[in-house]
Write a structure and sequence with these properties.
single chain; mainly beta; Immunoglobulin-like; 4 domains; six-stranded mixed beta sheet; five-stranded antiparallel beta sheet; 6 helices; 44% strand; globular
Length: 434
C-alpha cells in the first residue's frame, strides 16, 4: 500500500470515531459558533482539512477531546504543527491545506513531505525526518518543472525530527508556479568542528492546486500618521491566507528610522488579529536602516474587511545621528552616550572577552558588526540574552545581552546601536484602514 492509499484509508478509519469522542466534535463546533457570534464554518468532515478544523476548535475548547485524540496520530501532529500560528490554523479550518504524501531516502534518513499551505506570497511545507541519529535540517532550492532554478524567494527553517516540522518559503518576487521542484539537502546541524556537513540531496516534484494558491487581496490606505513626533505613511495592506503584510513609508525629514512597530489589527466585528510569533515579522530596505514592511496575522477570512483598524501601541526608533560608542576593553570605560533604553555597558573575561549590555528590550541593542580603531569591520563570534526576571527580594533584572570577541588584538572597539529609543503609547493610536 503506497502513502496515498494509506492517507485515504486513514481518513476512512477516522470517520469511525472512538467512543471517547462521541459528541465532542458537535459540542465543540457549537461552542465555537457561539464564541464567533453565529459565524457558519461551512466545513465538511469528509475532508482531512475539515476534520482538522473541528479538531483545532475542539482541542482548544475541550481537554477531554484532546486526550481522546491522542490516539489519532495524524490529528495530534497536524494540530501541534499549526497551533503556533493563528493564520495557519485558520487556513486549515477553511480547508486550505494541500496534501503531498511523498517520501524519499537520503543517507539513511527518510524525508517525508506531508502537507503544504501556499499562496502567492508564502509556501509553508510540513515535513518529517525519520532515522537521523544526529540533529539535521533541510536546505531548500526551488526549480520549475523543467529543472530551471527559480529566484526571488527566501527560506526559513530549523532542525527537524520525526514530528511534523515546517519549512517557510517567502516569495518576495517569485510567482508561484503550478508545479514546483523542491531540491532538499539534508544538513547536519552540528558536526563538532563547526563545519556544515551536507549528507545528500533529494528532489520532489510537487503539484500545487491553483485554487489553493490565492493571490493577495490589496487594500490601499495612503494615510499619514504621526508617532512620537515622526511621520509615517501607511501605504497599503496585502492579505493572503498565510499572513497580512503592512506596508509603511517614512518622511524624509524624520530624525529617526523606524526599526520596530508594536501593533495589531481589528476588523469591523472587533476581532483582534495580533502579530504572529516565531516567524518573519519585518523586513528593511536597502536605502535605510529602518524596517517598514511588517508581517501580521492573516485577515484573509475576516468577516468585515471594509472596516479595518490598525492599532499602534508603540515603536522602536534608531536616531539617524546616533554615534558609535568607543569601548575600552581593558577597563570597561567608554566614550560616547548611552541611549535611554540602555542601562549599562561592561566588559568581562570568560574564556575570551565578553561585552555585556543591559537594555529594556529583548531586541539586541548592538549591531552584530563592529569596527576596530583602524576602521576594519568584524562580526561578533557569538551573542546571547538573559534576564527579564524579578528575584526573591523583588529586584528586577532587565535584559542582559552578551557579545563575544575572540582573536581581537586591539584594546578598543567601536560599537553601533541597532536602536536608541523605545516608546509605549498611553493609549493605542487607531488608524482606520477601510
Amino acid at each position: 500500500m503506497n502513502r496515498q492509499q494509506e492517507y485515504w484509508e486513514l481518513l476512512r478509519q477516522l470517520n469511525q470515531l472512538p467512543p471517547e469522542l462521541d459528541g465532542t466534535v458537535d459540542r465543540a463546533r457549537a461552542r465555537a459558533r457561539r464564541s464567533r457570534r453565529g459565524r457558519r464554518w461551512g466545513i465538511s468532515l469528509a475532508s482531512l482539512a475539515g476534520m482538522c478544523a473541528s479538531f483545532v476548535i475542539a482541542v482548544n475548547a475541550l481537554p477531554t477531546f484532546a486526550l481522546a485524540c491522542g490516539k489519532v496520530p495524524v490529528l495530534r501532529e497536524l494540530a501541534a504543527a499549526v497551533a503556533f500560528s493563528p493564520s495557519l490554523s485558520a487556513a486549515v479550518e477553511h480547508d486550505y491545506v494541500q496534501y503531498i504524501g511523498q517520501s524519499a531516502q537520503v543517507d539513511g534518513v527518510t524525508v517525508s513531505l506531508e502537507y503544504l499551505i501556499a499562496d502567492q506570497q508564502q509556501i509553508v511545507v510540513f515535513y518529517r525526518l525519520e532515522g537521523a541519529e544526529e540533529e539535521c535540517y533541510l536546505a531548500c532550492t526551488l526549480k520549475d518543472e523543467a529543472g530551471e532554478k527559480l529566484t526571488g524567494y527566501s527560506v526559513i527553517g530549523g532542525p527537524g525530527g520525526e514530528e511534523l516540522n515546517r519549512l517557510e518559503i517567502h516569495c518576495k518576487e517569485l510567482e508561484v508556479p503550478d508545479t514546483l521542484r523542491m531540491e532538499l539537502t539534508l544538513v547536519e546541524a552540528s558536526t563538532g568542528s563547526g563545519e556544515r556537513r551536507e549528507r545528500g540531496t533529494i528532489s520532489f516534484l510537487v503539484g500545487l492546486d491553483p485554487a489553493k494558491t490565492a493571490p493577495a487581496v490589496t487594500i490601499p490606505v495612503d494615510r499619514w500618521v504621526e508617532v512620537d513626533g515622526q511621520r509615517l505613511l501607511v501605504e497599503k495592506l496585502e492579505i493572503t491566507p498565510t499572513k497580512t503584510t503592512l506596508y509603511l513609508d517614512d518622511d524624509g525629514d524624520n530624525t529617526a528610522w523606524l526599526v520596530g512597530l508594536k501593533c495589531y489589527l481589528t476588523d469591523g466585528g472587533g476581532t483582534v488579529y495580533g502579530r504572529e510569533g516565531n516567524t518573519l515579522t519585518a523586513t528593511g530596505r536597502v536605502e535605510s536602516k529602518g524596517f517598514y514592511t511588517y508581517y501580521l496575522q492573516s485577515l484573509y477570512y475576516a468577516e468585515d474587511l471594509e472596516h479595518l483598524t490598525l492599532h499602534i501601541d508603540g515603536a522602536i526608533w534608531l536616531d539617524k545621528e546616533a554615534e558609535r560608542l568607543t569601548l575600552n576593553l581593558t577597563d570597561g570605560s567608554y566614550t560616547g552616550t548611552l541611549p535611554d533604553c540602555v542601562g549599562s555597558v561592561a566588559v568581562k573575561e570568560q574564556g575570551g572577552t565578553v561585552i555585556l549590555v543591559e537594555s529594556v528590550e529583548d531586541l539586541s541593542p548592538l549591531e552584530l558588526t563592529f569596527y576596530d580603531p583602524e576602521g576594519g569591520a568584524h562580526r561578533f563570534n557569538g551573542s546571547g540574552m538573559s534576564g527579564d526576571w524579578t528575584d526573591e527580594n523583588g529586584v528586577y533584572h532587565p535584559f542582559q545581552h552578551d557579545y563575544r570577541l575572540e582573536d581581537y588584538p586591539w584594546d578598543t572597539v567601536e560599537l553601533e546601536w541597532s536602536y536608541t529609543a523605545v516608546i509605549e503609547l498611553k493609549a493605542p493610536m487607531e488608524v482606520p484602514l477601510g
